[in-house]
Design goal:
- This protein is of the alpha/beta class.
- Helix content is 46%, strand content 12%.
- It has helices at 2-15, 19-22, 26-29, 68-72, 79-95, 116-121, 123-127, 142-150, 163-176, 193-206, 213-221, 227-236, and strands at 59-64, 100-105, 130-132, 155-160, 180-184, 209-211.
- A six-stranded parallel sheet has the order 3-2-1-4-5-6, sandwiched between helices.
Length: 239
């Protein structure tokens, strides 16, 4: 536990986060009561720029199958950029205390292990990763579904490999279960650009928001002049 806390502090320091942001008090860390925006009752959040904003206090991050082998299969995006974006999402989640759930599929086969950098960035989430035995829709894996529900969050930020196989189906299920979902397209990739576009259209038509790492960072920052905003700006290379 001590090693985990020291690593988390190191990440926070690397992002320029203050001690109060990296290790919030119980009051700060407690999730705010969620109200479904579809009911017309906005969620109370003094840090949010608008009622439906995703924040570290109301959202969870899911990263699916960012594995050495699976990433090598994709051709829809520059894979080094996808890797950079995925690692940045993990850094953001870890440094802001946002719940982070990692999963992999058939690590012992050609899919390979999760990116080793994820273990450095988020050692606890990496250790707790859900190892699926070939289940396509991660939400069909009881352990993964339970981990998602255990976050207590109804807003989900998600990215994975591949968009057209391992992202689209859990997103559709999450939407069907009443979650708000934001798909981070530049931290995801597919076998082909056509397949990636088709998956994004299908998810968007079902109600998912299609986003990017820069949008996620900006939404969480709210105000670039705050300690959190300055730290996230530095992560984007804006400061």
């Amino acid at each position: 536990m001590r090693n985990f806390l020291s690593r988390r502090s190191a990440i926070a320091a690397g992002l320029g986060l203050s001690a109060s942001l990296a290790a919030p008090t119980v009051a700060q860390a407690a999730p705010k009561k969620h109200s479904d925006h579809r009911s017309g009752q906005p969620e109370s959040n003094s840090d949010a720029a608008y009622p439906d904003a995703y924040t570290p206090e109301n959202a969870a991050m899911l990263l699916i199958d960012h594995q050495v082998g699976t990433m090598s299969w994709t051709h829809s995006h520059d894979i080094e950029e996808v890797k950079k974006a995925a690692l940045n999402l993990a850094k953001i989640a870890t440094a802001t205390e946002m719940p982070l759930v990692l999963t992999s599929s058939m690590e012992g086969n050609i899919q390979g292990p999760l990116l080793p950098e994820l273990e450095e960035i988020a050692p606890q989430a990496f250790a707790d990763r859900i190892k699926r035995a070939g289940i396509v829709n991660a939400m069909h894996d009881e352990n993964f579904a339970n981990a998602v529900r255990a976050t207590g969050r109804k807003r989900i930020i998600i990215a994975g490999i591949t968009t057209e196989v391992c992202v689209v189906f859990p997103v559709l299920q999450l939407l069907g279960e009443g979650y708000d979902v934001q798909v981070v397209t530049d931290a995801s990739a597919s076998f082909t650009k056509i397949g990636d576009d088709a998956a994004l259209r299908r998810m968007e038509q079902a109600g998912a928001a299609i986003s990017s790492t820069a949008q996620v960072v900006s939404e969480l920052a709210v105000d670039w002049t705050t300690p959190r905003g300055q730290a996230l700006a530095a992560l984007l290379g804006l400061a």
